[in-house]
Structure formats: structure tokens, C-alpha cells
Amino acid sequence: MHIVRMEGLNDFAEWRGKARQVLAAGLSPDQVEWRMLGDVGGLLDQPTPLPLADHPVGSVPRQFLDLAEQAICHADPARFAVLYRLLWRLQADGQLLQNSADPDNSLLTKWTSAVRRDSHKMKAFVRFKSIVDDSGLERYAAWFEPEHYTLERTAPFFARRFDGMVWAIVTPYRSAYWDGESLAFGPGGKRADVPQDDAVEGDWKTYFSSIFNPARLKVSMMKSEMPVKYWRNLPEAELIAPLIRGARQMEAEMIERTASQPPSRHLRQQAREVEGAEDVGEIASLADARAAVQGCRRCPLYEHATQAVFGEGPEHAEVMFVGEQPGDQEDLAGKPFVGPAGQVLDRAVEKLGIDRSRVYVTNAVKHFKFEPRGKRRIHQRPDGGEIQACKFWLNLEIGLVKPKVIVALGATAAQSLLGKSVTISKLRGTPIALADGTTLFVTNHPSYLLRIPDVEGKAREQAKFEADLLLVREAIAGLRKTH
Amino acid sequence: MAALTLRRKLAILSDAAKYDASCASSGSEKRNSVGTGGIGSTEGSGICHSYAPDGRCISLLKILLTNFCVYDCIYCVNRSSSNVARARFSVEEVVRLTLDFYKRNYIEGLFLSSGIIRSPDYTMEELVRVARSLREEHQFAGYIHLKVIPNAAPDLLAEAGRWADRLSTNIEMPTDIGLETLAPEKKPSEIRTAMARVRGKLDEADPDKKAKAAKPKFAPAGQSTQMIVGADAADDGAILHRAAGLYSGYRLKRVYYSAFSPIPDASSRLPLKPPPLMREHRLYQADWLIRFYGFDVPEIVAGGEGGLLDLDIDPKLAWALKSRQLFPVDVNRSDREMLLRVPGLGTRGVDRIIATRRHHRLRLDDVARIAGSIDKVRPFIECADWTPGGLTDDTRLRARLTPQPEQLSLF
Ligand code: SF4
């Protein structure tokens, strides 16, 4: 039997060096006993000098090194031996780690997750106390009792987080110090090495008890996330029992205490508001309409869209383009025709020499209708009822802008303006005289052009669209002459 | 009036914040204070530093700058007609408390909200000042979550996103009518417009989109919102429908559902009873199914009755029991979408099933090992050595899979 004595509790490099030697000597796991420094049982036996290596060491998967480095921090005294057994067995079976049914393997998994959890809990539950010395320098110290040997692997986290502080974390087996520049480790300590009190702790306890909502008491949930074994070093833990005891009573009081007379400050404020309240009178301008449409409830579309998107353009534009409804981007921006279809329209208008500054653009329906699909909103066509409901606003716009020419872009716009459903191909190319004396042209919606997949078809439709706009331009020119 | 001590203010202004369900401090960029002489770090996943006896994690100093408010939202403890004690922190006090708590490792950062005082702009400006001071004067690299005050100027929003990790604007109620009834001064479209603005800024700062110049950063942990459940009559269908619309429209990271809990000095128009915690729990489960399992709202709602989710069993099981014609699913052959619909199988389980079946056909034992527990799964699958036979259509299946009430209790 060979006895290998470990100086460190969790020193992976040490274990690795010794394990390599033992392995090279060809010692099987049951020929080796791993002892920790200060092991009572090992007091009498002397470590055997390790035999010199007489055959080369094999290799292990990278994964094993990563896991072993974590597992060695576990408090189980068997850790060195089990790791060596795994190392030994890996020489014969390189796939061993993939077999989750193997007892050594599942022990390894159990240990690594316990170590990771303990390290995570240290990040969460270390509580620093501040110490101010005579020179006014403020330093911080914490007493923490990890369940495993996790200080060394967790201290760098605190160094990254508390760069500008001088701090120490003392545990029973080791301590870590940060002086603002480098991290150092020293021997373990006692609880008394760290001050009992801290000036801010009272505030923290105040916060802890005030943020707790007694109507939601869920003690088991709290205990599973904040295991009781850590409580002895958490200053807030002493509040838990009284808070739980008082919870039902507090909840009952909240329920019983119904509204009392509002404070006078509130009454004064209400009075001011009533005085200041304006009558929502008639809609006499585009600005009035723009404000009023935000409160529209004529159809259900308002509820899921961001906002109503009203038309935009000069107050007395000669031409009004009417689209279908705002799309995703228009809905977010609150402006019509800012998305891809708007760009198609802008380009065509500019190309054909229609003065953009004389054009008013709007939509038949003012709220975006969509179907949520994961992270996207899929456009949906408004139905007859919605078009009809929203005609109120389009009529207002037409009445206030008084355009001479209206261009319906697409079937929804044409349906709104003509009061019946229509086919674009039958109506395009000829002006239609409306009852109020304006001239209506009907063409496709520019988004239609965007959806044509083939280049040829797209070019053909683009030409038709431009031909329609050309008619619009001529009609405007004609109007000017007759004036 | 005698001046309040800082501790008294802290008691009042954290009590006022305890009804907000959001708490996460995760999902932000990675950063630390190395070499800055400051303090603070975020490493992607947040850390819960403590737990209150209500089971909720304490990760941030969650407080209000002030609980004075000019609004009178019925469901809110801070509404102007309520007789709760009032207090107001100065910007410097909040900064000091945050740093003091952070240095003792009590918290991951600050979650600052506020009652509306004077005007939305004034209030938002105060919140922004706290964040700016922490970042610029104190090199604070911890987590900051700021509440957006709807209707505040867009440039204040832009600055808020520069300092904060996360921004949130609470939608409050599942329906516009509900909101207008209970919060007469709040305009739903203003709340949504604020979210749309934040989304616009998030899009601009999105590092995935190609652009030449380095982009100014904006709320790297994204935006979230909270909806109060059970204060009005809106059903689960309305709630989930609203949530789906918000996720798709504003790139929200999370919708928090907050079971309405009784508040002191409450209006008689409110349901004054213990908060519907199980309903809240089911909504979170349903939300999860929508975001990660490819379910849509109507399907999930159809698992319950009359627009409400089943409180006794989880929404996926409820849906499956009503969609038995689609089962059993062959775990050795079905596509990912369908496997995700099997009760008791999670996304990781499904991925492991798909990986394993490339090597060999799965047996019931394999599935049990992967799923952790087989009871819920068994009636809905077929594998190498198992078919459920009549079990899938057994009329007693629901009763058999419904946990006993004791287990159901959250206590
Ligand atoms: S779509 Fe039109 S009618 Fe419907 S709510 Fe919006 S503005 Fe009103």
C-alpha cells in the first residue's frame, strides 16, 4: 500500500502532479491511499516515497481536467481517491465520462455541481462589514463559511467586482485579501476576526422587511433558494421568523383597512384639475383631429396598436394619397409611409415630378392591424367593419385638407372611398369623379410592388404604377390651368 | 413637519415598491470594475443576494424616488387619494444607499421607480440624474434598472438608456378599458408609445445590425413590463393576448405578471382578497410556452375553460389532454415541434432525445432518465418498447395526472 499525503485541501496542481507520478508507477487505485494533511487516521503512518515512474503516462479528455479541478474543492474526504480511480479507469476507457450510470462518474457530477452551487452562494451571501481606521481609510471584511473549499475559485469574482475597495474574506480554512491591486491568500480564521457590526446593516434590515409582501408568503420557496445553513452569517436572517409570524396578521390588516378620506393635498389637486379641464369641442382643424384620433374607440383595432397614425402633409394639399393602414414601422413611429412601401411611393412621386410638398399622405384605417407571431407582428388586412368605422377620420381629413385629387393606393383605400369592395385592375387608368367634386384615381398599393418575386413582373407592375401616377400628375397640371 | 430620517424614508419607499414584480438583474452586457477604481460588475446572469419570506429574490435595491404622485390609479398604493405615509429621497441619498448596499454585497444594483411629481419630464429627469451620478461620478458598474415615465421627452429616454441596463414601462392592466377605468390619468397609447420609442433605440443600438460607426449603447438588458393580474375582470386570454402583442411589438425581454395583492387604504372597487398566486404562476408557465415552445395564445387558452387557464394542472398538460387526437407522439421519429408539445418534456430534454436517437432507438427507460420523471410523459409517447394503448384516451387520465391539492399549495 502506498500512502500519498496531500498538503493542500483543494490544490489541483498538487493532486495532478502526485497522481501523475502514481499513475506512471503503474499503481492501481487499490494500491494507493490518499491522505489529507492532519488526517487523524494517518497520524502514525509515514507517506511512502513514491516509486519512480517506469512507464509513460497516458492522456485524459480535457473535460476530465475541468471537472476534476472543480470536484477537488468538494469537502468529501474521498475526493482525491475517487479522482485517481477515474483517472486510472480513463486510461482503459476514454468514453467513461459519457456513461452517466457509472457510480464514480455520477459522484463526479454530483460534486462539481455542489461546488458550483457553493461558489455561487458565496457570491450571493458574503456580507462585507466596513471598518474605518484612524486615518479614515475604509476597508471591508467578511466572514463566510462555505460548505466546500470554494474560496480560491470564487475570490477572483470579488476582485473583478470590488476593484476600488480594500477587502478580505475570511473562511475557516483560508482567507482572501484584495488591496486594490492584487489578490492574495492566507491562512483561515475565526468569526471573531471580522467585526460584528456595520453601520449600514440596520438600513439593510429595514429594506429586507419592507420589501417583503406579507400577502405572498412562500416560505418553502425562500428556503430552497436560500438554504438555512447559510443563514447564520446573513444579518437579515434574524428577521425571517418574526416576519413570517406576523404575515397573516399584516395581510388581514391590509384587507380590512379600506379607503379612508383622501388627504387634503389630493382634494386640492383634483379641484385644480377640474378647473383646468378643457371642453373637448368640435374638431375644427387637422391638429384637433390628430389629437382626437388618439382616443378613438370606433373599432377594436386601437387596443393592440401602439397609436393611431394620422395623415401628414400640407394643410391644403392638392393631392391626397390614401393607403391601407399603418404597418409595423409606421405604428412605432406614429407617421404614415415611413416603411419600405413609403419609400417606393416617394421614389415614384419624385421620378414623375409630382411636387412632394403638395402631397398629403394618409391611410384608410388609422390603427395597425396585426397578428403577433413570436417576435414579429404580421400585417393583417382590415375588414369591412373597420374600414367603415375609420371612414369617419378619413372624411374629416378630406373635409379639412380639401384635396382636388385623391389617389387610392390599393383595394382597401378604394373600398373606403367608394363605399364598396372593388377590383383595382378594373378601376385603374381612369379618373373617377366623386360626389364632392374631387377626382379619384385608383392604383395598387406600393407594398404590392415589393411583394412581386420575379424581376420582370416587378418591372411590368412598376411601369403600370408609374403610368397611373403620370395620370395623377396631368390631372394636377390640368387643375392649375383651369384656375 | 419633522424631517424624516434616511431609514424611515427607506422603509416607506421600499414598502411602496414591493408590489412591482420585476426583479431580474440578468441579461446585460458583461462588465466589471477592474482598473477603474470604482465598484461593480455584471457577468450576464444575475445573482439573488437574499430571499424575502414571500419567496421572491432580492437582487436589486428596489425603491421609489418618491411615493408622492399626482396620479390616482386605484390599484396603486401610492395614488394621490391614499393616506399612506409619504417620503422623497434626494438624488444623493439614493446614490449613497446604492453604493453602501453594493459595497457590502447586499445587492446587484438599483431598480429605481417613482411616483409622478410635477411632470413626467421632471420625474424622469430625476431618475436619470441618479443613474448618471452613479455611472459618471462613482464609476459604478453594477446593474441599473430605471422605470420609464410614459410621456417623458424622447431625449430623456435616450439618456436613461445610456446609463441603465434595463428600462421598463408598466402596461399595468391587460385591457385599455381596464386601465382607463382604474387609472384615469394614464393613456394606454402613451404607454405603448414609450415602449415603441425604447424599441426604436434598442434597434438602433443593436450590434447585430451592420453599421460602420460604433453605436452608442442603449439599455443592453432590454426592456420589460408588468401587468397586474386579478384587479379587474380581464381573463387569462386577454392577458396572454396582450402579452403576445407586446412581445412582438416592442422586443420585450419579459412580461412580469403580478397577482394583485391587497394594498392598505384600498378602494372598495378592488378585490380585497389574497392575491391569486396560482393564477400568476400558470400565466408565467403559459408565457414560457408561447416564447419557447411555439404555442400560440388561442391554443393555450383552449386548454382551460371560458378564457381562464386550468389552475389544477400546468397549461401544457391541460392543452395535451384536450388535444389527445395528436398523441401519442413517437419519440424516435417525431419532429422537434411536436416533441416540444409532449407534457413533461422540456426544451433541453427534447434536444437530448434528438441527439440520442441518432445513436440508438430510445426505450421508455431512456426517456425517463432524460425527462427526470415519466408519469406525465408516458401517456403521450410511443418508443421502442412502449405504446400507451388506450391510456392516451382514458377518461380518468386527467384525474390521474392532477396533483393532490396538498402538493398544489405554494406554501
Ligand atoms: S382603426 Fe380607425 S376606427 Fe378603428 S379605432 Fe383606430 S382610428 Fe378608430
TrEMBL record, chain A:
Keyword Iron: yes
Record-linked CDD domains: UDG-F4_TTUDGA_SPO1dp_like
Residues that span the membrane, as ranges: none
Record keywords: 4Fe-4S, DNA damage, DNA repair, Hydrolase, Iron, Iron-sulfur, Metal-binding
SMART domains assigned to the protein according to its UniProt record, in alphabetical order: UDG, UreE_C
Keyword Nucleotidyltransferase on entry: no
Record domain Uracil-DNA glycosylase-like: where: 310-470
Family statement drawn from the similarity comment of this UniProt entry: Belongs to the uracil-DNA glycosylase (UDG) superfamily. Type 4 (UDGa) family.
Record's protein name: Type-4 uracil-DNA glycosylase
Organism: Devosia oryziradicis
Lineage: Bacteria, Pseudomonadati, Pseudomonadota, Alphaproteobacteria, Hyphomicrobiales
UniProtKB/TrEMBL annotation, chain B:
InterPro entries: Aldolase_TIM, DNA_rSAM_put, Endo/Exo/Phosphatase_dom_1, rSAM, rSAM_sf, RuvA_2-like
Domain of life: Bacteria
Cofactor(s) needed by this chain: [4Fe-4S] cluster
Residues of the Radical SAM core domain: 64-199
Organism: Devosia oryziradicis
SUPFAM superfamilies, A to Z: Radical SAM enzymes (SSF102114), RuvA domain 2-like (SSF47781)
Transmembrane segments: none
UniProt keyword Iron-sulfur present: yes
Keywords: Iron, Iron-sulfur, Metal-binding, S-adenosyl-L-methionine
Any Pfam family matching the protein: Radical_SAM
Protein's name according to its UniProt entry: DNA modification/repair radical SAM protein
